[in-house]
């Protein structure tokens, strides 16, 4: 299914294939010979989404832009089942495996791999040819790649990346009410425009 979001609607190359149960919404461009499989969701929520040629997006993957961060996925890349990519730049020939997560402002260098359940945190840059092992976490610029049992090191690096400020524009130290109350009310207002989407 394709949806117009705001004034933008998807542009899909005639050689691309999109499964009937996939959802593509807004300012999304799908390149030549792409394959978008069942249950995949590709949505442009403010920024654009650009898929190069020969990109494969597998079942139930989610690719999403934000107002702050567009998404670009380079030629000959694959986004695996249940993977989540938001506001990131993925250079050509990258493999994002099943269940991997790539967050806002991340840059994945050409020929890199983020293996099963790997995480690339916001504002993290992977050099070309980097591998994030199964279940490991990449954080920072340049990226440090840490095992999931290194929570303190991950948190120390992640704290400097300012998730609430970068993603939501919120400084928790300046709030006079609970952070999650501010976050959910502000985010709900931002997402309210989806109510006006039209199927095309």
Automatic annotation (TrEMBL):
Membrane-crossing residue ranges in chain numbering: none
InterPro entries: Transf_Hexapept/Carb_Anhydrase, Trimer_LpxA-like_sf
Taxonomy, superkingdom: Bacteria
Gene3D superfamilies, per the entry: Hexapeptide repeat proteins (2.160.10.10)
Database matches in PANTHER family: DYNACTIN SUBUNIT P25 (PTHR13061), GAMMA CARBONIC ANHYDRASE-LIKE 1, MITOCHONDRIAL-RELATED (PTHR13061:SF29)
Name used for this protein in its record: Transferase
């Amino acid at each position: 299914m394709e949806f117009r979001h705001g004034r933008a609607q998807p542009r899909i190359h005639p050689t691309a294939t999109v499964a009937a149960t996939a959802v593509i919404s807004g300012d999304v461009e799908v390149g030549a010979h792409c394959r978008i499989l069942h249950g995949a969701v590709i949505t442009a929520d403010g920024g654009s989404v650009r898929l190069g040629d020969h990109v494969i997006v597998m079942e139930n993957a989610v690719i999403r832009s934000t107002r702050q961060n567009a998404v670009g996925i380079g030629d000959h890349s694959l986004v695996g089942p249940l993977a989540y990519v938001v506001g990131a730049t993925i250079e050509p020939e990258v493999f994002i495996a099943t269940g991997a997560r790539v967050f806002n402002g991340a840059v994945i260098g050409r020929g890199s791999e983020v293996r099963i359940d790997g995480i690339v945190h916001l504002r993290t840059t992977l050099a070309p040819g980097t591998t994030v092992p199964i279940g490991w976490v990449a954080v920072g610029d340049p990226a440090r790649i840490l095992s999931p049992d290194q929570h303190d090191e991950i948190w120390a690096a992640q704290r400097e990346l300012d998730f609430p400020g970068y993603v939501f524009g919120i400084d928790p130290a300046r709030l006079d009410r609970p952070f999650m109350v501010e976050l959910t009310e502000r985010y709900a207002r931002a997402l309210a425009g989806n109510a006006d989407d039209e199927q095309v």
